[in-house]
Amino acid sequence: MKYPRPQSPNMQNYRPQLTSAMSFGHRLSGVALSLLAFGLAAWLVAGAAGPVAFDYAQAAMHSIAGRMILVLASWAVFYHLCNGIRHLIWDSVHAFELRNIYAGGWAVVVTSLVLTCALWAWVLI
Amino acid sequence: MTEPRITPYSAARGLGAAGHAASHWWVQRVSAIALVPLILWLGWALAGGSATDHEALTLWLEAPINLILMILLLIAAFHHAALGLQAIAEDYIHSRARFAVIACIQLACVAGGATGIVATLLIALKA
Amino acid sequence: MIVESSDQVPRLKWPRRFPVPRDFGVAKNSRIIEGKSWPKPDGATRIATLRIYRYEPDNDGAPRLDTFAVDLDDCGPMLLDALIWIKSKIDPTLTFRRSCREGVCGSCAMTIDGTNWTACTRAMDELSTPATIYPLANLPVIKDLVSDQTHLFAQHALTEPWLKTETPAPEHERLQSVEQRQALDGYYECIMCFCCTSGCPSHWWNGDRFLGPAALLTAWRWLADSRDEGRGERLDALDDPFRLYRCHTILNCTRTCPRGLNPGKAIAEIKRMMLERGG
Predict the structure, then answer these.
(1) Which of A42, B87, C68, C203 is the most exposed place for a label (fewest CB within 10 A)?
(2) What is the ipTM of this complex?
(3) Is-above-0.80 flag for pTM?
(4) Dist CA C263 CA C215 (whole Å)
């Protein structure tokens, strides 16, 4: 059977690289942040509904599961923020050499982790 | 969804260039630039304990600067999210269901943004 | 960790591929089965193991992965030399494109150890053990390592890669300063190997409408040419959410170009020119 021709594998075989991995992380964190935006709107609605509702919302956020979600969400925020700035730098047609792409990529990963740890150190201590 | 074409060139040509794509791209970038300081402000305010309980929340949002920044944040964040999620839908959904999904995304983001803004105003103005 | 140029082979051995099942989203006729394991050559001391994608359109078999053992002392240093050695000494039916054997024609582009490169410029000692040789990613396979690039060439033709002028031809050349000619450096050298387009995830998902890095690099080469007078028409043709703006600056293209070119940068320049027009 000659037609349709088989298709060579793409994602199933192609090597993940810093370029594609960070872009995927940007998209994943973006989706997570969209949910977080709706969460922020819901939290504000709880605030508008009065002290009882707001205390309930705060208790949910301070629970173990709530805290874990907030830590991951803050990492997503910082990752998307730092990588977003890297994207804006690219949009002004700067830092396109491979050396800068890779250096910037690792800088974003490290910075986002450092900022997340710093934020939670400040909150918890 | 493009109809099947007869020659490779007409398949590549498709339905032609739609136009107006550059403005979507630009608005996405402007909302991103706006979100950089706004997110940093929100993170700093919440981590600093401006909204630990209802009293603190009301006091914090009653200050005009915080009220304005929160509303600007909600507008920028939901607009940025709408455009970003639309790009994701366009990337991965290739059937006509794409239009329904994009419509839902736009409506949900407008609703979310409006809800957040109204809630913020209620907190700030209902002393 | 920091990659200085695209000819650097990835150092990390893992992850070799995206963690999805082997047949995730693969059409039934594209599923790859285990193929033949060819015997080792006698008396060979240095052996390289290559797992090569095979597909015969003439019989009804499925695509398969054959395992070959190559005697490194009997063939040249590059992967293309090994493929030619296999074809002449082990299996004459192994099919692949090749021409210049020096990295300037783009014929032998294939997916080697999960990244796209030309076989003639990939040294045997840069391969992993065993090395996996597939045809260029996400393209229909005609036979073995030969992929059908008709659609990619059609997208290239769509960018109208020729000089567009209204003013009549001058007596001698259309003049260009040294700086104006330098604006084409890094864009005219493209050999149309399609390593970049084949490695672009956006082109995987929307290849029917997204032009891809190779075609867009060509588009920029003509937009940047000071002698060209059709800039407005070219930008009109590109102003589309799919043709240009499926590019999300993933930059797999720049990472994989065998000529060291920068399609990601070319696309960013196009977007900037689009903005200058009034986005």
Answers:
(1) A42
(2) 0.92
(3) yes
(4) 9
